[in-house]
Amino acid sequence: MKSRELSRVGIVGAGQLGRMMALAGYPLGLHSVFLDRGKDSPGAQVAETLIGGLEDPELLGELAARSDVLTFDWENISGKALAPLSGSIAIRPPAAALEIAQDRLHEKALFTRLKIPVTPHRAVDDLAGLRDATRLLGFPGVLKTRRLGYDGKGQFVLRGAADVELAWDLLGAPGLVYEKFLRFSREVSIVGARSQEGRIVSYPLTANTHAGGVLRYSVAPYVNAKLERLANTYLRRVLKELAYVGVAAIEFFVVGGRLIANEMAPRVHNSGHWTIEGAVTSQFENHMRAICDLPLGSTRPTGHSAMINFLGNLPDRRRLLAIEGLAYHDYGKEPRAGRKVGHCTIQRARAADRDKALAATLKLIEWT
Ligand SMILES: Nc1ncnc2c1ncn2[C@@H]1O[C@H](COP(=O)(O)OP(=O)(O)O)[C@@H](O)[C@H]1O
Ligand SMILES: [Mg+2]
């Protein structure tokens, strides 16, 4: 018997990730409807949007009633808000996967259980606990909120004992984690998709450059067979354990030729944006395929890509589009300092040419 076709996708949150998912769905005949607070949000500009709180029970119910499957642009929706829907609609990725990824401590516990190395860390709930953690793990270290941190928000780097009280003044509240600050040689990530039947595909390793906790640019493929095998093994363990359906990413630090897991994202990921032009099937399309029970597409890279984030403002598109093979993405957001408002991707047949084009393009971009 042919299974029911899933073609109406309800997306919780209408940020740029949701917008790029919806856009990837159209050619496949998949229609998205969003739930978001803002009627001008990036997703609302490209698909119908229910306006209101992301955890509003009535609106979530309406979103579910109008969809065949629910998925997420914003991964911080609580399991409690989703629970009433779980009998009536497929929720992909599953709520349990979201819940683990919402808490840095639970995420690290999952990695450890799956024998994936993590940064040495301690839970911190009060000032005495922070002192103990710094004594145990030393300096420098990073104090992070366990929940709701993104783009380096909710983090403070401690250089020495003199910073302990300042860090506590800034972030002090129960629900923190103190981590050793790792001197990594680089940051890489792996993005992959798992289908309901358990098929897993993954993109080549991507090398990521951050500043101030925010991703500036990514380069892919990052060619290192050993690290790529390892990243794949780790990603597979996590996706299988969570009975995951959809696209997910894991961020790693490379330390002494080993991978140390930093965090996971239970969704499409900024370091996978290059796949729109740089792979046979983009991460957004593969997410839509996975959650709608369609065959996963090829993750093969079609060249050597670089993706640069536009932060705070959009660079002049006329100037950028004059660069050969450059793809420009404007998310339709109001400019604001530090905000991700768009990105561009360049692709070249050879890695060395990609690196040259990346350097030239970076000169035209001002992060504010
Ligand atoms: N323990 C650490 N050691 C070194 N750098 C870190 C550490 N934790 C975070 N960072 C830096 O800050 C960036 C953002 O931190 P991350 O934990 O990924 O939080 P976010 O959820 O904001 O992305 C990382 O990509 C990395 O560059
Ligand atoms: Mg991160």
Tell me the radius of gyration. 20 Å
How far apart the termini lie comes to 55 Å
Look at the helices and sheets and give the structural class. Answer: alpha+beta
Strand segment count: 18
Q: Runs with pLDDT <50, length 5+?
A: none
Overall residue-averaged pLDDT value: 97
Strand content: 25-35%
- Helical coverage, percent range: 25-40%
Give a list of the ligands. Answer: adenosine-5'-diphosphate, magnesium ion
Strand count, sense and barrel status of the largest sheet are: 9 strands, antiparallel
Helix tally equals: 12
The geometry reads as globular
What is the H/E string?
A: EHEEHEHEHHEHEEHEEEEEHEEHHEHEEH
Summary of the model, kept short:
This protein is of the alpha+beta class and 368 residues long. Helices cover 29% and strands 28% of the residues.
Kindly describe this structure.
There is one protein chain. This protein has helices spanning 16-25, 57-65, 79-82, 95-101, 104-113, 127-137, 164-171, 225-241, 275-278, 283-291, 317-321, 351-362, and strands spanning 8-12, 31-36, 48-51, 69-72, 90-91, 121-124, 141-145, 155-158, 176-180, 186-194, 200-202, 206-211, 214-220, 246-255, 258-265, 304-311, 327-330, 340-348. 43% of the residues are buried. By secondary structure, it is an alpha+beta fold. The strands form 3 sheets. Strands 10, 11, 12, 13, 14, 15, 16, 17 and 18 form a 9-stranded antiparallel β-sheet that branches. The chain has 12 helices and 18 strands. It is globular. The mean pLDDT is 97. Strand 12 (206-211) and strand 13 (214-220) form a beta hairpin. The termini are far apart. Adenosine-5'-diphosphate (ADP) binds next to strand 15.
